[in-house]
């Protein structure tokens, strides 16, 4: 049997996932955890499972806080309503990332993926897993931003560019500028490379919003919606930039 733990602070969602997992004859749910505090206590005093299904945003923090403090060799399948945490999830033993509401076929595919990582002799090749995860990583489609005490979901296709200013990375839409929790390096890893390109240290732009490109004396890009600062393609990126434009 595959020992499994569910981490979910919403009881209806936890019960639903447990019911869905009960359809798999070889999966046994051994614990259901509702908070970071409870998770830290449970993983510190119990034998770790082989597989964990974990929501990310819990009532007292992020489930990442558990696995950054308590080391586990268990594989983690994250379940969440937001996909902005994809990059961090894949750095913390994640083999899949399911967006809510979870579909039966997506859950089945995630379980099969987990099983494919476990050879018959149970000898896990961590390097091979890392490569498979890297190839399978999905692109970011929406971002959760804070506006005062409120939260807003911004679709990445609505974003003309990301830019850094005073060590904070912002995203620009037609509506306004929003601060984000990402670095530009992290965004390069998870954005759709067909749509987004990092033109210099400060800017990542979306091809859908390019209004004009000046080529002399330097490559300068004008976007439909952009901050006041000019966007110049760094010299070492010009060739890649032109290749990206026609790819």
UniProtKB/TrEMBL annotation:
Domain HTH LytTR-type, chain residue ranges per copy: 143-247
Keywords: DNA-binding, Phosphoprotein
Residue positions where 4-aspartylphosphate is found in the record: 55
GO molecular function, one term: DNA binding
Chain ranges of the Response regulatory domain: 3-115
Gene3D superfamilies, alphabetized: 3.40.50.2300, LytTr DNA-binding domain
Signal peptide: none
Pfam families linked to this entry: LytTR, Response_reg
Source species, domain of life: Bacteria
Keyword field contains Transit peptide: no
Name of the protein this chain belongs to: LytTR family DNA-binding domain-containing protein
């Amino acid at each position: 049997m595959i020992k499994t733990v569910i981490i979910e602070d919403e009881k209806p969602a936890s019960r639903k996932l447990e019911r869905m997992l009960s359809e798999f004859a070889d999966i046994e749910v051994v614990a259901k955890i509702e908070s970071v505090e409870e998770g830290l206590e449970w993983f510190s005093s119990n034998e770790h499972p082989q597989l964990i299904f974990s929501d990310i945003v819990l009532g007292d923090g992020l489930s990442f806080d558990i696995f950054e403090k308590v080391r586990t060799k268990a594989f983690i399948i994250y379940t969440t309503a937001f996909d902005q945490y994809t990059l961090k999830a894949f750095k913390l033993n994640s083999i899949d990332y399911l967006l809510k509401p979870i579909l039966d076929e997506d859950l089945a595919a995630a379980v099969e993926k987990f099983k494919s990582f476990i050879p018959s002799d149970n000898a896990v090749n961590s390097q091979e897993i890392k490569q498979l995860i890297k190839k399978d990583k999905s692109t970011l489609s929406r971002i959760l931003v804070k506006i005062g005490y409120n939260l807003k979901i911004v679709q990445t296709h609505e974003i003309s560019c990301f830019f850094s200013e005073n060590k904070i990375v912002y995203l620009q839409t037609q509506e306004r500028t929003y601060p984000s929790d990402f670095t530009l390096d992290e965004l390069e890893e998870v954005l759709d490379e067909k749509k987004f390109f990092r033109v210099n240290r400060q800017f990542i732009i979306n091809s859908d919003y390019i209004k004009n490109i000046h080529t002399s004396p330097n490559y300068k890009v004008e976007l439909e919606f952009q901050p006041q600062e000019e966007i110049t393609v760094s010299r070492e990126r010009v060739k890649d930039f032109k290749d990206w434009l026609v790819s």
